[in-house]
Amino acid sequence: MAFDQSSASASENAEASELQMMIAVEQQKAQFEAQVHTFTDVCWDKCMDKPSSKLDSRTDMCLASCVERFIDTTLTITNRFTHMAQKGGIH
Predict the structure, then answer these.
(1) Which residues contact 47 (CB under 8 A, 6 or more apart)?
(2) How far apart are CA 79 and CA 35, in angstroms?
(3) Can you give the pLDDT at residue 91?
(4) Would you say 70 and 46 are in contact if contact means Cβ atoms under 8 Å apart?
């Protein structure tokens, strides 16, 4: 049985491609977790007057509103950059 160099090369390329995909997925997960941490810190500092065993309705509404604004802003910025990249504005 002869060793086929092209088969080995194709297999290595497939493995490298799969590894790159796995790395990209892990980077996206890490970026998402960092964003969650950021808006948790920002919203906590903005909305929490004094920690207690329960959230009052004002604090609850403030936290929900803060997170929603943060998500909306992030989505708007992401969509804007995607649109610019599709038009060739970002290289």
Answers:
(1) 59, 62, 63, 66
(2) 16
(3) 53
(4) no
